[in-house]
Structure to design on (246 residues):
C-alpha cells in the first residue's frame, strides 16, 4: 500500500487519468491511495490568492511561501517521515531506479508548481527533493505528478496482474524484447521462428538475446550502468558476431 498526497491548484486535471484502467483498479483494491489537496484551501483571503508578482520584476507569478507552508506542515504532521517532493524542471531527473526506491515508501507528498514556480524560501525550508520528469518545461507539475504516480504504482505488488507484469519491462537495466501477435503472416513478414516453435527454452533464449540486442543497439549506456552477467557476456559476443556478419 502506498499513499500519494498531491498538492495542486488544479485537482480536476487528475480526475480522468486516475479513473481509468490500472490506477483505478489499484485504488479500488486499496493498494494505492491518492489524495488531492487544493492549495487554495490554505489561503486566508477572500480571493483565495496563492501567487504574487516576483520581487525584482519580470514575467510570471510566484507561489507565495506562507500558503505552501501551512499546507505542507499540515500534510506532513500526519506522517512526518513522508518526503515532500516538488515537481520541478530543475530537479534530479526521474528514472526507473528512483521509482523503485520510492515504491518502498508508504507515503509521498507531491507538490505541483504553476506559473514561474514557487518562492525559493519555500523550496529551501519545506521541500525534501526536487524531481524533474525530463529536460523540457511544462506549464505545471500536475502531469509530472501523474507520471510519478503511475510509474511508482505499477511497482506496488498486486497492482499489475500477471498479464502485464513489470518484471520484464524495459528499464532500469535492459530494454524489453520485441513483441508479436496475430496474424502470423503480415505482408509476408513473419515473427521470428523461435517464438512460433512452442519450445519454451528456445523462446526464453530468444527473448533474452533480443532484449540484449536492443539494449546494445538502442541504449548501449545501460550496459555500462548495469554490467552484463556472465551469461549475458556470452550472448553479447554472439550478437556482435551476427551484427558483423549481416
Ligand atoms: N520558470 C521555471 C519553470 C516553471 S514551470 C523554471 O524555468 O525553472 C511551472 C511548473 O511546472 C513548475 O513549478 C513545475 O512544478 C512544473 N514543471 C514544469 N516542467 C517540469 C518538468 N520537466 N518536470 C517536473 N515538473 C515540471
Amino acid at each position: 500500500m502506498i499513499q500519494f498526497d498531491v498538492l495542486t491548484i488544479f485537482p480536476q486535471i487528475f480526475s480522468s487519468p486516475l479513473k481509468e484502467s490500472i490506477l483505478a483498479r489499484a485504488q479500488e483494491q486499496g493498494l494505492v491511495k491518492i489524495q488531492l489537496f487544493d492549495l487554495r484551501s490554505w489561503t486566508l483571503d477572500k480571493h483565495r490568492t496563492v501567487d504574487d508578482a516576483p520581487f525584482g520584476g519580470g514575467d510570471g507569478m510566484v507561489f507565495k511561501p506562507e500558503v505552501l507552508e501551512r499546507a505542507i506542515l499540515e500534510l506532513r504532521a500526519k506522517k512526518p517521515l513522508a518526503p515532500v517532493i516538488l515537481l520541478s524542471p530543475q530537479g534530479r531527473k526521474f528514472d526507473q531506479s528512483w521509482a523503485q526506491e520510492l515504491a518502498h515508501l508508504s507515503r509521498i507528498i507531491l507538490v505541483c508548481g504553476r506559473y514561474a514556480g514557487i518562492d525559493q524560501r519555500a523550496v529551501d525550508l519545506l521541500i525534501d527533493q526536487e524531481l524533474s520528469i525530463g529536460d523540457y518545461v511544462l506549464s505545471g507539475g500536475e502531469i509530472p505528478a501523474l507520471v510519478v504516480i503511475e510509474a511508482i504504482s505499477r511497482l506496488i505488488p498486486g497492482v499489475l496482474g500477471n498479464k502485464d507484469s513489470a518484471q520484464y519491462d524495459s528499464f532500469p537495466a535492459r530494454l524489453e524484447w520485441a513483441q508479436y501477435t496475430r496474424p502470423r503472416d503480415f505482408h509476408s513478414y513473419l515473427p521470428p521462428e523461435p517464438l512460433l516453435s512452442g519450445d519454451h527454452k528456445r523462446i526464453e533464449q530468444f527473448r533474452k538475446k533480443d532484449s540484449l540486442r536492443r539494449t546494445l543497439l538502442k541504449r548501449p549506456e545501460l550496459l555500462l550502468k548495469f554490467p552484463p552477467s556472465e551469461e549475458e557476456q556470452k550472448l553479447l559476443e554472439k550478437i556482435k558476431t551476427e551484427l558483423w556478419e549481416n
Remarks:
- The pocket of S-adenosyl-L-homocysteine is lined by residues 87-90, 112-114, 116-117, 132-134, 136-141, 144 (CB under 6 Å).
- The mean pLDDT is 96.
- The longest strand covers residues 84-93.
